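Work package 3, deliverable 3.1, input record:
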Amino acid sequence: MLGSAHSHQIISTLYTNHYAWLQSWLRKKLGTSHEAADLAQDTFLRLINKDRELQSLREPKAYLTTVAHGLLVNHWRRQAIEHAYLEALSALPEPMAQSPEEKTLILEILEQIATLLDGLSIRTQQIFLLSQLDGLTYPQIAKEMGLTVNVVQKAMTKAMTHCYEVLYA
Amino acid sequence: MANNIKPTTTKQAIHWFVRSVSGTMSDQEQEERDQWLDANPEHAQAWQRMQGISSQLQPSEASQSPLIRSTLVSSANMQRRRLLKGLAWTSSLLTSGWIAKDQPFVLRHIADFSTSTGEQHEVTLADGTHIIMDTNTMLNIAFNDQQRHIKLISGQIMIATAKDPAMRPLIVSTEDGSLKPVGTRFSVRRDESDKVTRLIVTAGAVEMRPAKNPNTVVTVYAGQQSYFDSMHVAAISSAHEVDTAWTKGMLSAERMRLSDFLNELARYRTGWLHCSPEAADILVTGTYPLHARDATDHILNALQETLPIKLNFRTRYWITVGKA
């Protein structure tokens, strides 16, 4: 396990040299400093068990920004989902009673689905959700979205291929 | 998870799944699907995975599905918007109809890197390639074992390439086609409005290849510029320093028509900037800093002081420039 001891050394050097600017880079993106500190910590946590990448690290700044960027995207996704969910809730004609646990659970499910569908176009996502969530037939989806059945079927193929790659490839 | 299913089987399974949930499957098709399922244990295993994907989406309560769907779609929109513009959420995002204003091509992407209106940003990629992003620019980066790919979705970038230790070629692409640099520095611009890709090479050389006419390859050398759409490549002409002044945070013009200059300025400015026909042909020469606070306001005021023009403010975001 020579590798991981060495990695540990690399991570602690990276931390000493780069933590400060990474945090300020994140602060600029996020606008708040406590979230920036959290994400900067998470960025370094992600480096653990990345022995191979750390051994051949040439551009530590670029590497750290790439990792941090990925975390930022997740963070924004989570924020967007929570915000959209609250908006959708408040737009309901009948208020829905929900315990904090239920809310946490549904936000987790939503995030999981959003992660799964990330990278697909919004139209494809919508088609896929209408089919799999609402159980609409292709002609019904086509009618609702003003598309041809053929386009709907192609989008479904694309979405399934995408999900398969995310989950199993 | 470890046992791999053949890609052809996966493809067939996806086909049968997509048909099975269509609501338009004929009896004969169903029979064919069942035969396929029985034909090979691997088929059944692939089918299980399709069900697995589908079950990820099943809500615990059916009544929640519209809520989940609208949350997911609007959060995907918001997130994209967040990444594109760097703006905080606004409630208007959720009102229907705004999507139509956006380019469908843009909708397909959540860009890896982006700048908002008026913003410029520099990025150094893992291989050392340096990119300066101009206002309102979106790009995606995909590096793999075979190549380094930079996709310019819209906007303008200046690229200084680095030599890759792994010797992977660098490809820059736009909707119109691809660019292959040979040890170089060059700028690429693609505006949603004019539907062409503009190339200016300041060092080295770059090959242009239109997407729908891949046999056409035209090389542009240092000091030259050209542009292309997905079919055709325009004639090569010499490049002007003013066209790359933006990389130094400057907007520069040399005897440029006012209407053209205002079009350039509008790229850095939120809102609507209109030039009246009488003022359109007035010539502008000058170099203006873009990085100052309220830079575009200062530039407009400077123009008003030096040229026979008058700014008419309908609102702060709606300005008409007329003859004085």
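The first strand of chain B starts at residue 113 and ends at 114.
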